[in-house]
Structure formats: C-alpha cells, structure tokens
Design goal:
By secondary structure, the chain is an alpha/beta fold. It contains 14 helices and 13 strands. The structure holds beta-D-fucopyranose.
Length: about 450
C-alpha cells in the first residue's frame, strides 16, 4: 500500500466532524432543541434508540480532541456550528454562551496551528423552525442567512473560509422525502422545495460572507452514476438519477440553471418553490471552492414497475465497508474528471470535505480503513497530476461518532471512542495518517 502520494505543496490535510455527531451537551448553556433531538427520541427512528445527547461529549472534551488533531499534524479541521446552540429557536435571540463555545474552539485550534473550517449547517435545524415548516418554508432560508451573519461576525476575524451547507441532497432525500433522517418527513418528490430553500439559504449566506471578505464553499455528496447496461432504458434511468442526486445541487450554483427533472415528473418550478429571479440569486455569489464528499458510486437500472423512474442496483464484486457501502476508489477519479468535463471553467477548486469508511469495532489493526484511505488518496493524486485542481482532503472522521440513523453502530473514526467511558484511543489509521502528513510536509520542505 503506498504511504506517500504526490500531492502539491500547500495541499491541506484535514479531518471532519459535525456538531450533533460529536458535541453532546444538548441541554447545556442555553442550546435549543434541534430536529435531531426530536427525531432520535421517536421510537424506532434510530437503531437501538441511540441519541446524540452525549455523543463524544466533545462540548466538554474539545481540548483533548484538539490535542489529538495536533498529534496528527492536521492543517485543517472541518467542524459544524450547531445552529440551535447559537440561535436556540432558529430566529431572533442569539445565545451568547453558544457563540462563546465556538470562539473558544477556534482560538484553541489556532493555537494548535490548525485552520478552522466551519460548516454552518450540518442537518441539526432548530426545532423551532421545523415547527414552522423547516426547509419546506422559504423563510428558513432568510433565518439561515441571519444566523450565518451572526457567526461570521464573531469568528470571521480568525476564520478565512466557510462551508454554508453539508449535503443538501442527503438532507432533502433522507430527511424530507424518505423520512429515515430528521425531521422524518415522507414527501417523496414533494420534498424538493426543501432542496431549493437550502440552495437559496446558501446563496443568501454566501453573499453576506463575501461582503465580510470571507471565502465560501458548499459541500455536496456527489456520486458517479453508472447505468447498469448500455440499454437506452438503463441510460435514461441513470440520467434521471444523476439529475436528482448531483446536478440539482451543482447546476444552479455553478451555471445558474436547474437540470431538467421532467423524467422524474417534477415540475420546473419545484412545486411552486422557485420564484422568478431565484436561480440567478443562487448562482450570483459564486463559489470559492466546491466541497466534495465522496463515498461510493451508484449503479442505476430502468424501473421495475410503476413509481420511481429508476432502480438502484448492486455493484457486483465491489468490496464493502462495515456499513455495506461499496468501495470503488477509482470512481473518485472518474467523478473529478466528470465534474471538470461537465462544468469546465465554471468549476471552482475542489476540496474533498469528506471521505472515509466505517470499520467494525473489533477489526484490528484497522487495516481496512488504512487501505480505504490509501487507495482513495492514490487516485486523488492521479487526478491532481492529470490537472484537476484539488486543494485538500478532510477525512471523515476524526472520532467514532453518532452516525445518524445508525446511532453508534458505524465507526468512521481515526480515533476509537468508548461511548461508556469517553476514553479516546487512536487506531492504526491515526498513526498511518499522521506519518503520511509528516512525510508530505517533509517532502515539500526539501
Ligand atoms: C455523510 C455525512 C456525515 C457522515 C458520513 C458518513 O453523508 O455528511 O455526517 O454521516 O456521511
């Protein structure tokens, strides 16, 4: 397995987490409830009824976690700001104690030589906003922009680059279409106004961040879409899926139009959500970087019956993570080339803002994770050598954490967390990543 990759000087090495997955302290210091607190309490919603009430207790242990990051030699740390910690009901009153937590976190990161990369929304919407319709309500976009400005005004003197949203596709589809994530709505395609309002929120916040001289990225979960065969039916189904999963979230931002969703039976105005001028608004702030969360490709066949215009099918012969996700590193290279081919000069520099895998707890010495990271970094380095502008790599995740509907069952961390005692134990992948970062830095000192 290669343990050094030919990546340019200045390439940023990082790790990523998200607030609800690690912080805990859900009722402390004035934090308001989020949709995830409410959803996780619903019987049957999350495996074994797990909740994020304690998670990794990072709210209290952030200094210990920063020491682990320093031990890795990270250049950057991607975390998310909990909206209900800062604005408990989602609108109006700001909670000074919530803001103060992120202030301390940022200062401690900078002291450790680590650049903070905050995400303003990683799925933990204040329940107060959900009660008024959540992302189905256009007003939520405006509330997000207000909240973004509050956080930027507090931290923008020390934090140069920001991610507005994490994976609006996953939040819309799992949260509003299928109901497997918070807020647990099952609207199928009628969930799509939630996608539009998130993109609107992104753009309103992006303009405010730009006015403050800050850089803006948006992190999307993108997947290479593979038709199951060359048949016209499978190819059409793959195109329909690509429009829904990928292009719906990148086309308006990068080229100022929505893809054609007619094959899905979705009206152009996304059920009345798209008002005149909205798409220009979404496009106009531009993006300083595209955050790419990559996990796996998706294989798509023609529908088997009435209902959805596509069927998701297995990828034969691909190894699987503990989560059951197929492992196909080369698809990351394909995806990067595809993005460049489709968007050309409109494609901003890319940062991999998530990539990693779940490995079963008793797997020692964590070899599958090392292999996963090494094989993905290998193709990433190839793509960079082929001229694709990728600026950094943030592995998911620093710590084992609360994996949404799977509770504590999927372990994505470089560091093992015992959820009974909160003891952190670096895994073999931690040492491997530390050595890799060090050798990259040494290579570029010479
Ligand atoms: C992504 C999420 C992240 C984590 C990983 C495994 O979709 O952004 O929070 O759950 O998957």
């Amino acid at each position: 397995m290669p343990d050094r990759f030919d990546l340019p000087a200045g390439f940023r090495w990082g790790a990523a987490t998200a607030a609800y997955q690690i912080e805990g302290a859900v009722e402390e210091d004035g934090r308001g409830p989020s949709v995830w607190d409410v959803f996780a309490a619903r019987p049957g919603a999350v495996r074994d009824g797990h909740t994020g009430a304690v998670a990794c207790d990072h709210y209290h242990r952030y200094l210990e976690d920063i020491a682990l990051m320093r031990g890795l030699g990270l250049d950057g740390y991607r975390f998310s700001v909990s909206w209900p910690r800062v604005v408990p009901t989602g609108a109006g009153t700001v909670n000074p104690a919530g803001l103060a937590f992120y202030d301390r976190l940022v200062d401690a990161l900078l002291e450790a030589g680590i650049t903070p990369l905050p995400t303003l929304f990683h799925w933990d919407l204040p329940q107060g906003l959900e009660d008024g319709g959540g992302w189905l309500d256009r007003d939520t976009a405006y509330r997000f922009a207000e909240y973004a400005a509050v956080v930027a005004d507090r931290l923008g003197d020390r934090v140069p680059a920001w991610i507005t949203l994490n994976e609006p596709f996953v939040h819309t589809v799992f949260g509003y279409a299928l109901g497997t994530h918070a807020p647990g709505r099952t609207l199928m395609f009628e969930a799509l106004p939630a996608a539009h309002h998130q993109l609107l929120a992104h753009s309103l916040a992006a303009s405010l961040l730009h006015e403050r001289g800050l850089e803006v990225m948006l992190s999307n979960n993108l997947t290479p879409v593979w038709p199951a065969s060359d048949s016209a039916e499978d190819v059409a189904a793959a195109e329909a899926y690509d429009a829904l999963h990928n292009r719906l979230f990148t086309d308006p931002v990068l080229v100022g139009r929505y893809p054609d969703l007619s094959a899905l039976g979705v009206p152009d105005d996304l059920y009345g959500a798209v008002h005149p001028g909205d798409v220009d608004l979404i496009h106009s702030p531009g993006l300083d970087g595209l955050g790419l969360n990559y996990y796996n490709p998706t294989r798509v066949a023609a529908p088997v019956g009435p209902g959805l215009p596509f069927t998701l099918v297995d990828i034969p012969d691909a190894p699987r993570t503990a989560f059951g996700w197929p492992v196909v590193p080369d698809a990351l290279r394909q995806l990067l080339h595809h993005l460049r081919d489709v968007y050309g000069a409109a494609l901003p520099p890319i940062t991999i803002t998530e990539n990693g895998c779940s490995v079963a707890e008793d797997t020692s010495p964590d070899q599958p994770r090392i292999e996963f990271l090494a094989t993905h970094l290998d193709v990433l380095a190839e793509a960079v050598a082929e001229g694709i502008d990728v600026r950094g790599y943030y592995t998911w995740s620093l710590l084992d954490n609360y994996e949404w509907a799977e509770g504590y069952h999927q372990r994505f961390g470089l560091v093992h967390v015992d959820f009974e005692t909160q003891v952190r134990t670096p895994k073999a992948s931690y040492a491997w990543y530390r050595d890799l970062i060090e050798s990259h830095q040494n290579d570029h000192l010479r």
